[in-house]
């Protein structure tokens, strides 16, 4: 994604994309660290539950309650693994979407340049060119709103799975 942000010709947009890429990377790293901490905490709890179960089994031979706690911890650990995998899949999907958007943007820019060259050679008026530029601005707004909507959906997906 860094490579794509460097390919943007205008400096303000490049800086904006660079910040967005950094924010997404920081957020993903933070979520990954949180999941790792939770995983380690659950692993420690499971180990402690196993040790308690072993001690209780030695003491009185009945450790069904402790084993039930151990099963609950194992289920929690499985849930953490699933959440981590889903988060990584969401991140890779988001990266792929951003890559495709960038490719489409470049393709559309080339097509726009060619169309403007043809229109200039045909001699169409400046008002048509202004209409095209206005449409381009509207498309840009739609693109950014789509990105924000995608981020909001991803946020709620991560929040609901956690």
UniProtKB/TrEMBL annotation:
InterPro entries with a match to the protein in the record: GOSR2/Membrin/Bos1
Topological type in the membrane: Single-pass type IV membrane protein
Gene3D superfamilies the UniProt entry points to: 1.20.5.110
Superkingdom of origin: Eukaryota
Record-level GO cellular component terms: endoplasmic reticulum membrane; ER to Golgi transport vesicle membrane; Golgi membrane; late endosome membrane; SNARE complex
Keywords: Coiled coil, Golgi apparatus, Membrane, Protein transport, Transmembrane, Transmembrane helix, Transport
PANTHER family: GOLGI SNAP RECEPTOR COMPLEX MEMBER 2, VESICLE TRANSPORT V-SNARE PROTEIN VTI1-RELATED
The protein, known as: Membrin
Lineage, broadest ranks: Eukaryota, Viridiplantae, Streptophyta, Embryophyta, Tracheophyta
């Amino acid at each position: 994604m860094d490579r794509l942000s460097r390919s943007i010709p205008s400096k303000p947009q490049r800086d904006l994309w660079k910040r967005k890429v950094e924010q997404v990377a920081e957020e993903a790293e933070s979520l990954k660290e949180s999941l790792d901490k939770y995983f380690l905490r659950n692993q420690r709890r499971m180990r402690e539950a196993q040790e308690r179960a072993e001690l209780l089994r030695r003491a009185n031979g009945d450790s069904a309650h402790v084993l039930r706690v151990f099963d609950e911890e194992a289920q929690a650990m499985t849930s953490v693994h699933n959440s981590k995998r889903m988060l990584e899949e969401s991140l890779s999907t988001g990266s792929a979407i951003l890559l495709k958007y960038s490719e489409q943007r470049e393709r559309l820019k080339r097509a726009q340049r060619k169309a403007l060259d043809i229109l200039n050679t045909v001699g169409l008026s400046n008002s048509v060119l202004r209409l095209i530029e206005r449409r381009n601005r509207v498309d840009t707004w739609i693109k950014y709103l789509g990105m924000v909507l995608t981020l909001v959906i991803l946020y709620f997906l991560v929040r609901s799975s956690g």
